[in-house]
Amino acid sequence: MITTVDTKYEANKLRKEGHYEEALPIYRELWEKSDDQYIAAGLLHCLRKLELFDDAIPLADNLFAREPELPWCHFEITWTYIQGIIEKADNNENLEKILNVAERVIKLNAGDIARKIVVLRVLKLASSSKQWDVINEWAPRINPESLSTDPKIIDGKTGWSDQAQWYNYRIKGLIHGSEQSEVKEAVVLAETAAERFPRQQKYFQRYKALANSISGDLPAAEIILQSLCKGDRPDWWLLHDYSKVISSQGRKDDALRIMYQAAKACPSHKLTVSLLEDIGVICLELEKHEESRSHLLLCKYIREKERWHVSESVISKIANINGIIGIEHEPSSLQDALVVCQNYWDVECNKTADSDEKKLRERKIRRGLIGSLILTPDDKP
To answer: Does the predicted model carry a pTM greater than 0.85?
Structure first.
């Protein structure tokens, strides 16, 4: 006669040997006849390993509601939530749902690895949806020194380490916090991160500049961004940040010139909608009405093409400009507006290039030299 004890032994033996498909129906039958937490944990383990999360997650919810005392049960519930919900969540997921599950995992206290995965995932999702209050609540729940500093390799490319990611999210949360003390803390953390992670140095230097700008130290922000924008091909988003700091100090013409450089350098026009709006605003302040309208229209057309919301501010500004200069030469399509705007960018960037070349000639710098370099002995300068 086969007893319940024999059946449990057989199910456990199959599970431990990795025969989850064979063990699963046995566990199901046992669970229907008993509310034994050991059986429940075994059943949940098999469901999780077979990735049958439609069954695993309701069972995990059921067990969590019973407040199980068995550590193994805590472990299985935790990893069912992590693998079935947390790790599968994308940027479109309901953040409240994820936070509810994440709180359950933290409450189960299943270990440092589980806590790390959950906290970093919450921070990533909150950053994507710009929920800075969530970041500021969750980032302190993990000690960054406990996170790995080894860069991750993703599709053969070197990525960010877990610790660098934590600094990234934490600093962004502090920058967008309302308290000045939080912004000052962001400056300190950005300095630390820039030294600790050379590969991501420009990102953390940028955060330091943004934090200085928000706190009112515009000259400090300008120095950092000016340095980051040196070279032949500075990143367009750094140029955009630089231009905004310049504009905030009242140098509108210089700011507009840098914004045009940023627009020309951007590889995808749909990335530039906020930059285009800023150009439209600053041109309006400089009473360059046609330039302003062309950029605001380009912003509008791109948003409409991508089915994004067009703000009332943009629509209102276009209408006001049309009231001043009329609609006779208004670009009527995205392509028309793009051609007009690109012409403005090219003219301004060519002026800048000519000016830079003139400065080099005045300094008598010789370019394109070819020759040999002879190294001197170590004891000589």
So the answer is: no
